[in-house]
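@channel anyone free to eyeball this complex?
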Amino acid sequence: MITVKKLVKRFGMKTVLRGVDFEVQPGEFVALLGPNGAGKTTFLRILASLSRPSLGQVNVAGYRLPDQAAAVRARLGVVSHLPLLYGDLTAEENLRFYGRMYGVSKIENRISEVLQMVGLENRRRDLVRTFSRGMQQRLAIGRAVLHDPDVMLFDEPYTGLDQDASSMLDDVLRSVAAQGRTVVMTSHDLARAEDLATRFDILSRGVIAASASRKELRKSNLLEFYKKALAN
Amino acid sequence: MDTEERSAGDRPLTIKTPAQISSAAPRPLSNFLKATLAVTWKDLAAEFRSRELFSAMLVFSLLVILIFNFALELDIKTRQSVTSGVLWVTFAFAGTLGLNRSMAVEKDRGCLDGLLLAPVDRAAIYFGKVISNLAFMLIVEAFVLPVYSFLYNVNLFKAGLLLVILLGSIGYTAVGTLLSSMAVQTRTRDVLLPILLFPVAVPVLIAAVKASGGFLTGDDFANILPWVNLLIVYDVIFIAIAFMVFDYVVEE
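replying in thread with the prediction:
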């Protein structure tokens, strides 16, 4: 579903990604872990077609980036730590707007489905600026799945959420993954990543330093694996 | 570009091969227009609720013409000759305020990324923003003109002058929207937009001031026509340039 070969990203003289090789199979839930400044957000922005690679090949859902960016975007849902929602519009107005931008048919039915999925059906006519951070993040996931994408990218979705909101987000993420979508999530929260993901990749100093599936990790826990990958 | 509308919920989706993509028909114009109107509708609906942008532009405009009214205590004849300059200074400053705020709203909550992630021609996003920015500017102008007429005792409701105001506003918002989408990516966006915009907008401002002045003083239409033509050419050129480069301007 996602294939990345020898990806390099430079910002002026600074090289952030130094030849990343990365592959995700359909239906996999990959947690991309790593310290601050490892290049996780940059990597996700390239997959999301928001940033161009300096060198290397990137294929998402069968399309090449950046040449076929529009086709990739049609099959991609992105959730970041910012909600990407308009505070002065209601929840349903936000979803209707994004639905129009994605050319979603039967939009009103789909809005109801999505609001039900993220547990905000009873707040559909409330302005987003009146929502708590957790509710905004759930609506952000609703926005990202509105057009039924094959691939979901989550960039630090738990940032700024309290314990209750995080648990609720866990449930939403599980339901998103259970629908057969391919998911790539960056996070600093190893416990949550261990709970949700089927594979763990460690990005360090601009390269994938280690990769292991859930099965392979049975012998050791994720924290040990993470520390070992960074030490190497 | 992907052509068909996707019916959400109908999984699994068929993935086209790259060869199919390259042979696919171009996205219909109606999808471009739908995306443009969606962006405009979103801006107008959000502004209708908050009135942040409109009230700031209107209050600023009224303050500017009030200050000029006291600063230029002139006779009726001289007032007519400075009217076009004062009007366009007011419109330009208020317009810059609106352009800055309009793009800042997109950037602050990451909404610009949300727009850029949509599988639409990015020029549609540009045109949507231009139309909403133009609407805000024209609404403010509709409030400013009667107040200015009253304070300066000048009749501003002439068809020629209104046409010039429309053409000038189109040119100003066309180039302003493009430059504000560049400036918003920087940390000094509030300061940067006027510095970038005013030099580029000099031709449209000069032409608008000259043409407005001509209509107000009852000059021969033959003398005004070159300035009106300059406004039209400026509008066409900058809309065409923005259409071609907007995709590159907003990309990281």
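from a first look: Chain B is about 80% helix and 0% strand.
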